[in-house]
C-alpha cells in the first residue's frame, strides 16, 4: 500500500524510545501482567518461536517525536515514517467512524521501540510482538517484528502487512474505549472464546480501515493512501494468517490444539479481515455470531 507522496502525515501521533537499560529478552524479562494480556487477550506472543534468555535493552520514558516524518513520500521511504503515516490515517478514520457507530473517540498513544521497553502492563521484549496495553491506552511495536513476520512466520510482508498489524492493535484501542473489553472479560481459551472473538473483531476493524484508507484524507483533503491493489491485500491476508493460533502452535510445538486458542486460526483471521474490508466496521460484531460461524 503506497502513500500519496504529498499527503501530510505530520499529525501522526507516534514516538520512538531510545535505549537506556538492560533487560532479559526472548521472553525471560517480560512482566507477568504483560504476558497475561498478550498471551491470553490482546497481542501476539511469539516467545515460543523466538526462544528465550538473550540480553537486550529496555527503553523507558516518553520517547521522541518523529519530526523528520512529514509527508507520504517519507512514509514510503522508511518504516518509522510509515508507522507515523499509518497512525495519521487511522486517527482520521476512527475519529469519524467511531462516532458514526455511536461511540466517542479518543486517541491512543503509539510507541516504537527496539529490544525491550517498559509499559503500563509491565516490561515487554521483542519476543512479545506488537500489542496494545489497555492500562495506559498505548500501542507498542518493535519494528523488528516485521522482519520476523517474513523470516519466521512466512508472511509475504509488504507495507500493507505492516500497517495491518498497527490497524489491528488500533482496533483493540477501539474495543477498550468503546467498552467492549469491559463487557467480555472471560479468561477462557478456545476457538469460540471471548479472547478469540476480541482478536477477530480487531482484525475486522483493521479490514474496515483498509477499505476506507484510500479515501481517508489529511486536513488539506489529500488522501493518505493510494488505492489498494490485489497483491497488497494478499500481503495483509498473509500477515493475518501468519499469526493465526494454528500456525504458531504448529511451528512451536508441532501440533494444533484449538482448546488453547486465544487469537483465532489463520482462516478465521483472514476471513474477518475480509469481512471488515468488504462490509465495514458495522459488520464486525464477532460476539453476535455462533461458534460455527466464527
Automatic annotation (TrEMBL):
The membrane spanning regions, by residue number, are: 21-42
Where does this protein reside within or beyond the cell? Membrane
Per the record, the domain of life is: Bacteria
Which InterPro entries does the UniProt record give? Uncharacterised_pept_Zn_put
User: Could you give one GO CC term from the UniProt record?
Assistant: membrane
Which Pfam family, any one, appears in the UniProt record? Zn_peptidase
Where does the record locate the signal sequence feature? Answer: none
Q: Which UniProt keywords apply?
A: Membrane, Transmembrane, Transmembrane helix
Keyword Transmembrane present in the record's keywords: the answer is: yes
Its main localization is membrane
Q: Does the keyword Transmembrane apply?
A: yes
Topology versus the membrane? Single-pass membrane protein
What this protein is called in its record is Neutral zinc metallopeptidase
- Which species is this UniProt entry from? Leifsonia aquatica (Corynebacterium aquaticum)
* Lineage, opening ranks: Bacteria, Bacillati, Actinomycetota, Actinomycetes, Micrococcales
Amino acid at each position: 500500500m503506497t502513500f500519496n507522496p504529498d499527503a501530510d502525515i505530520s499529525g501522526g501521533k507516534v514516538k520512538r524510545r531510545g535505549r537506556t537499560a538492560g533487560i532479559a529478552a526472548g521472553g525471560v524479562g517480560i512482566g507477568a501482567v504483560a504476558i497475561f494480556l498478550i498471551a491470553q487477550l490482546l497481542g501476539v506472543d511469539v516467545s515460543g518461536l523466538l526462544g528465550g534468555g538473550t540480553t537486550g535493552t529496555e527503553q523507558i520514558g516518553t520517547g521522541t517525536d518523529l519530526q523528520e516524518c512529514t509527508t507520504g513520500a517519507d512514509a514510503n521511504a522508511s518504516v518509522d515514517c510509515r508507522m507515523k503515516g499509518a497512525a495519521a490515517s487511522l486517527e482520521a478514520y476512527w475519529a469519524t467512524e467511531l462516532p458514526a457507530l455511536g461511540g466517542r473517540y479518543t486517541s491512543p498513544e503509539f510507541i516504537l521501540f527496539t529490544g525491550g521497553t517498559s509499559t503500563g502492563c509491565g516490561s515487554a521484549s521483542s519476543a512479545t510482538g506488537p500489542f496494545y496495553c489497555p492500562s495506559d491506552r498505548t500501542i507498542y511495536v518493535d519494528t523488528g517484528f516485521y522482519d520476523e513476520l517474513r523470516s519466521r512466520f512466512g508472511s509475504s510482508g509488504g507495507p500493507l502487512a505492516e500497517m495491518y498489524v498497527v490497524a489491528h492493535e488500533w482496533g483493540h484501542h477501539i474495543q477498550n474505549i468503546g467498552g467492549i473489553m469491559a463487557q467480555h472479560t472471560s479468561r477462557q481459551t478456545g476457538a469460540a472464546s471471548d479472547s478469540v472473538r476480541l482478536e477477530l473483531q480487531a482484525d475486522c476493524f483493521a479490514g474496515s480501515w483498509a477499505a476506507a484508507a484510500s479515501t481517508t484524507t489529511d486536513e488539506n483533503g489529500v488522501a493518505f493512501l493510494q488505492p489498494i491493489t490485489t497483491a497488497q491485500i494478499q500481503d495483509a491476508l498473509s500477515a493475518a494468517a501468519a499469526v493465526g493460533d494454528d500456525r504458531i502452535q504448529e511451528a512451536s510445538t508441532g501440533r494444533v490444539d484449538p482448546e488453547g486458542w486465544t487469537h483465532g486460526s489463520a482462516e478465521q483471521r483472514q476471513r474477518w479481515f475480509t469481512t471488515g474490508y468488504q462490509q465495514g466496521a458495522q459488520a464486525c460484531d464477532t460476539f453476535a455470531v455462533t461458534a460455527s460461524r466464527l
